[in-house]
Specification:
Blueprint lengths: L14 H11 L4 E7 L3 H8 L1 H18 L5 E6 L2 E7 L4 H14 L1
Antiparallel strand pairs: 1-3, 2-3
Helix pairs in contact: 2-3
Length: 105
């Protein structure tokens, strides 16, 4: 794992790292989830950037607990995260996973 491919704040893959990992695992297809924290700027505005950073770390940690071994998690910018689940090609399964993630937050 190259440290230049890790997000400095959360320790998960950064944008270039996640692109590389998805390209490696994309052969058999899968599901891609984009996760954006709604109204995140309010946290920074109301509580400050240190609390906003802590929130981002907690989101990354929670998403990390929710994915399977072999899935890929990254932060692609600000409050945007991406999950690639190789082999998850069934739309019903992908929708169920997406709902589970949404309900968790």
């Amino acid at each position: 794992m190259k440290t230049e491919n890790l997000d400095w704040l959360t320790g998960i893959w950064n944008e270039s790292g996640i692109q590389e990992k998805i390209a490696e695992k994309m052969q058999g297809g899968g599901s891609l989830f984009l996760c954006d924290i709604d109204r995140f700027h309010r946290i920074n505005d109301q509580f400050g950037h240190l609390e906003g950073d802590e929130c981002l770390k907690q989101v990354a940690q929670t998403l990390g607990y929710m994915i399977r071994n072999g899935d890929v998690l990254g932060r692609i910018g600000g409050d945007e995260f991406v999950i690639f689940m190789p082999g998850c090609r069934d739309s019903e399964t992908a929708q169920r996973i997406g709902r589970r993630i949404e309900e968790r937050f």
